[in-house]
Design a protein that fits this description.
By secondary structure, the chain is α+β, with helices and mostly antiparallel strands. The protein is 61% helix and 15% strand. The longest helix is centred in the first third of the chain and has 51 residues. Its main location: cytoplasm.
């Protein structure tokens, strides 16, 4: 039929050679060998994957830290709220402490008089007031002469030479009662202790 020129045969052979070379490259890739172009692409993909993994780890770490910080915030605010409820009336209760002291002094003075009815009336009012305040969480700090002095609890008004050896470092006299609201001391007992 048609005769091909020599040039056409050569160009046809060149195209076939190129196709064969590409097919061999692809076959080599399937057999486990890589060509330089594909190797660069794989290296880029691996480095991109590593970068994404690193970013994911950083974001996960940020999330965990933020979550822990939020949990600590919730615990702290919950604790503060509970503490607030416990000591909500602290200012009012502290303002009432001098009134309680006055009642105690009045009871001492009235007990010296002969008017027992007035003593009963003042005792009744005093005990009602103390019961109401105790119901709100106010407690007397039990302090008496002979107790060991504790600087965390007691407020030393003065030091005196101990009247006896057994009172050295101990409370000699209680000047003013101390009170606490829940676990918090709102007024330290004022004491005199021996050296």
């Amino acid at each position: 039929m048609f005769k091909m020129s020599k040039k056409s045969k050569e160009s046809k052979n060149t195209v076939e050679d190129k196709d064969t070379a590409q097919t061999q490259e692809k076959t080599q890739n399937v057999n486990g060998e890589q060509n330089p172009e594909n190797q660069e692409t794989v290296v880029e993909e691996v480095s991109e994957l590593d970068a994404l993994k690193e970013d994911l780890a950083k974001e996960k770490d940020k999330f965990l830290r933020l979550f822990a910080e939020f949990e600590n915030y919730k615990k702290r605010t919950s604790k503060e709220r509970i503490e607030l409820f416990k000591t909500a009336g602290q200012d009012i209760l502290q303002a009432m402490l001098p009134v309680i002291d006055d009642f105690d002094r009045a009871l001492v003075e009235i007990s010296k008089s002969e008017d027992k009815e007035m003593l009963k009336g003042v005792e009744l009012i005093s005990s009602k007031l103390k019961n109401v305040l105790e119901g709100k969480g106010l407690e007397v700090i039990d302090t008496k002469a002979g107790d060991t002095f504790d600087a965390e609890v007691h407020d030393a008004v003065t030091q005196i030479p101990a009247p006896s050896d057994d009172l050295k470092g101990k409370i000699v006299d209680v000047i003013e009662k101390g009170y606490k609201l829940g676990d918090k001391i709102i007024r330290h007992p004022k004491v005199v202790f021996g050296q």
